[in-house]
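Reference record
================
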Amino acid sequence: MTHEPNEEVEIPDEELDNSGSSKNTTEQNDHRNEAPNRSKGVIAQMLALVKKLTIGQDLTSNPLQMPEGLEGTTSGLESYQQSSLRHTDILVRANEIEDPVLRLLEVTKFIITFGAMFQNKKPLNPVLGEYSVCKYYSNQKKETSKNDGVFRADDKDPNVFYSISEQVSHHPPISVCYSENKEQGIELTSCTKVNVKFLGTALRLNFEGDSTITLHKHKETYTFKPATVMIRLIGLVLEFAGDCEISSSSHPYVSIIHYKEKPYLRGKFHKTEGRIVKREGKKEEQVVHFKGYWDKDIEFEDLRNKNTYLFSNNVCPRAGGIYVQPPHSYDQSSYSSRNIWHHVKTAHSAGDATKAKREVEDEQRRKAK
């Protein structure tokens, strides 16, 4: 799949069909009739896979081949990149706040929104050398310079983030990503290694490597490491577990997000609690407390003045839109995410994505020799 060098293509929120075309009513009815059988097939495939595994098995170098019904058609490289940009309007807002505590509170909200990338199917495993270049318009107002519906913005547009990500290692899997808004003086970086283990009833994904958010206006850099991700095989539910700590280079305030795992018999998924503290040596003074559910509502309370702030992640409006940004011939390369996985997307609509995915992986092995 190729595009003209100067063409910019919007990635829609939802597609009626993965191939990009709409389906007729007869086809839709056929898919409805097939749904129960597909669900039974997915469960059967999942049970067959689990039987082959042992508790504690490291799946980092030998990724689990998920059933087609549970695997998406977008590369994990693109998924992370797009998720990290989806609510950059929060960072633009944080950039205008002088109070370091409230600024950190906004950064905490932004990191909590990352969970949206895990709400759907499992992303595809990126191949070595794969990259994605895109731009994101962090304002809800979409503007066009022509009457063709195509978004355009120059480098000085204060609402535009530019981003590039690349898979720099396949075994172990390591991804890097860099995003920036030059006009606002905001930068985001990440270098992440993923470790996957089978725990009997769940898959555990641990992330190594730090991510950073830099606000040059305030001469500060926030550093954090993503929390652990648990994929519950019973019920096929994904949740975060453990702590995510966000620290700043310019002040003593630290934010700790604590994701609570749901007990097996009671409780609810996605319960979240945390605090912002002033840390000086071993001494900590709590200044903000927050609790709720990361996929729904979280209430923040500023303990300095008892003010409360409600953050609704489930209705948090998407800032703008993600657009493929192919300067010159970047998006025409065979290593572009969109080109690598295009045939898998097309095959998915025909129910034959597994074969197309295997062809991509076989080509990866051939190049590695």
About this structure: Residues 290 and 300 are 4 Å apart (CA to CA).
